[in-house]
Amino acid sequence: MTSEPTGVDTDLTEYVLRLGDDALVLCQRLCGLVTRAPTIEEDLALANIALDLLGHARTLLAYSGTLDGTGRGEDELAYHRTERQFRSALLMELEPGDFAVTIARQLVYAHYSRLMWTALEKSSDDTLAAFGARAAREVEYHQMHADQWTVRLGRGTAESRRRMQAGLDLVWPYAAELFEPDALVDRLDAEGTAVAPARLREEWEREVAAVLDDARLTLPKPTWQATGGRDGLHTEAFAPLLAEFRSVRLQYPGGTW
């Protein structure tokens, strides 16, 4: 049996790891779409969003490695954990499908993450508060990009509207996991360190519903919801994604660039 190093805040360590894993996995998904977007401008837009998320992941994973007392850096946490050790929500690993699915996921996550980072600006943890202030400004662009494309596709041709609605219907059951009740986050929320996602849900629903109304799309009403990612239980899509992400690192261990 091993014990945690003295002074380790296991709740905060796990919370920060979740945030970092969300950013890392979604970054990898978006990177896989570069050169596959409808236009060159969208290739660049998705790449820039992915770079923002990579920056978020690097900071958060490094901070988690500091918090847990192991001193593990961002690379070790990114490349040398098993699938079950990743705590990302299933939404992030969802296979992209067509462009409308990508936009639907971005709509869900960008609104959620902007609200979350804005709330974390008031965290009692100085590092999280400072990071939240930076990240909230960055994801404003992510949200604007998703909103504009949702409206564009929803108000476009009959085919673009059909695909955008289908993308929303596919993604929506995965959105619920972002707001799942969680004892760990509730403890941190009570301490003023984190923000319980349930507190963000009403505003998130109002914001997203307004975008869908403008796009003349229907708010999905799923009959099921995804769960398990926070416990390391991932979909079949995750293993190939992870293998691709770390293939070069494992082929050239210890390599420098």
Write the layout of secondary structure elements.
Blueprint: H1 10-31, H2 40-67, H3 74-79, H4 90-93, H5 99-120, H6 126-154, H7 158-175, H8 183-191, H9 198-214, H10 238-245, H11 247-251
Helix pairs in contact: 1-2, 2-6, 5-6, 5-7, 5-9
Task: Supply database-style keywords.
single chain, 257 residues, mainly alpha, globular, PaaC, Phenylacetate-CoA oxygenase subunit PaaC, EC 1.14.13.149, PaaA_PaaC, oxidoreductase
What fraction of residues sit in β-strands?
Answer: under 5%
Biggest sheet features: none
Count of separate DSSP helical elements: 11
The portion of residues assigned to helices is 55-70%
Low-confidence stretches: 1-6
End-to-end C-alpha gap:
38 Å
| Cα-atom radius of gyration | 18 Å
Which shape, going by the Cα principal axes? globular
Query: Oligomeric status of the shown chains?
Result: single chain
The total beta strand count reads 0
EC number: 1.14.13.149
Enzyme class: oxidoreductase
Keywords: Oxidoreductase
GO molecular function: phenylacetyl-CoA 1,2-epoxidase activity
